[in-house]
Amino acid sequence: MVKPGKASLWVILASATLTVMAGSVISPVLNLMTEGLGVGAGSARIIITTHGIMIAICSPGIGLLIDRIGVRRPFILGLILYGLAGGSGLIIDDYWLLITSRILLGISVAAIFTSITVIILNLYTGDERNKVMGWRGGSNSIGGISYPLLGGFLGTFSWHLPFAAYLIGIPLAFLALITVPESQKSAVRQTGSPISKQGSIFRIIKNTPVLFIPYVLIFLGNILLYAFVVFLPKLVEQFGITNPFYVGIFISAVGFVGGTTSLMYGRIRARLSYRAIVLSALALWAAGFTIISQVFAIWVIFFSIALFGVGMGMVMPAVLVWVGELVPASFRGRMTSYITTFSYTGQFLSPIILNPIASSLGLYAPFLAIGATCALLFILFLVLLRR
């Protein structure tokens, strides 16, 4: 196995924050973009969401490419495309041209996200792998808190200026070129079996049915995450909190708790099995969402957010490492890319699934429905994981 250095680790963790920056850094200037581009609010929101849909669609293709040619080139090219496509918003004044740049940005994020997962799985082993994957989750959360603040500051000068933040992808690509080694071929050799004898994706899934659990878990986790993003502003409004800054504190608290937990994932994994992590997360989610559905005080909302955040902070790194350990190294690109697809599909479907429940049964109903679903899944997975 190729021995990574500290410089490559810093490049990997810095690059991990870019996947969060993709949407968060320009969200504070959404209203200004509406005026600047001369479009409606709905059209402006598509600028924020387009890249997410493309990530879900393109990730499997990126995973296949990584398994075929190695992980280093897709990673570096993804960083370059990220800088060029994202940074082009500095000079674009046409709505559809900006949408095109966001499509390219989505492709680049798919390459970066999947590549980072495979790089960590290939370069690190055992407790060190768990620790680094936890740091990766913590880096994402730090980005989720800091990039909206950066975008808001830059947006006070011009709605174009936050797009300059994307240019960081280009120097990171140069740093990756000189610090991050190619690891895919050596990792494949360690399996001791050529690709042709390791079967197909369908055979791997058939022979490893437990793979469905991490995929379902990450899909569910992202539906839950966006339940907070979508419904929390209305929920806290019931307690007289309407200032966007204070609403943002509630939403940021999800990332803060999750990120703090992810940073400690190495210690958590040393003490808990994957089975225990799955069941703990579902229990925390069931409790958190059931409690918030009966909310009677503002502190209850923070308590529920904390329960969800701890569960999500454990699940994200656990799922990435678990899938990587379950499959041959020659399939890591494809099998881990499906995690990205399930994640962003869950984010996209969350309001589509939950809005009808809220419209017909009230604001608190989606939280209660989620709590009940997590409780049922806890029982189901308790039985499945025993087998």
Offer a quick outline of the entry.
The protein is an all-alpha fold.
Instruction: Name the overall outline.
Output: globular
Distance between the termini: 33 Å
How much of the residues is beta strand, in percent? under 5%
Number of domains: 2
Provide the residue-averaged pLDDT. 86
The total strand number stands at: 0
Can you tell me the residue ranges where pLDDT is under 50 for at least 5 consecutive residues?
A: 192-197
CATH class of the largest domain: Mainly Alpha
Specify the number of helices: 17
Quick one: biggest sheet? none
CATH topology of the largest domain: Growth Hormone, Chain: A
Helix/sheet category: mainly alpha
The CATH superfamily of the largest domain appears as MFS general substrate transporter like domains
Radius of gyration: 21 Å
Helix proportion = over 70%
**What order do the SSEs take from the amino end to the carboxyl end, as H and E?**
HHHHHHHHHHHHHHHHH
Describe the model:
The protein is mostly helical and 387 residues long. It starts with 5 loop residues before the first helix and ends with a helix. Helix 14 (274-292) packs antiparallel against helix 17. The radius of gyration is 21 Å and the shape is globular. The longest helix is centred in the middle third of the chain and has 30 residues, at 126-155. The protein has 17 helices and no strands. The chain folds into two domains: 6-190, Growth Hormone, Chain: A, CATH 1.20.1250.20; 204-382, Growth Hormone, Chain: A (Up-down Bundle), CATH 1.20.1250. The chain has helices spanning 6-16, 18-24, 30-37, 41-69, 72-87, 95-123, 126-155, 169-179, 184-190, 201-207, 212-237, 244-263, 265-271, 274-292, 298-326, 332-361, 365-386. Helices cover 80% and strands 0% of the residues.
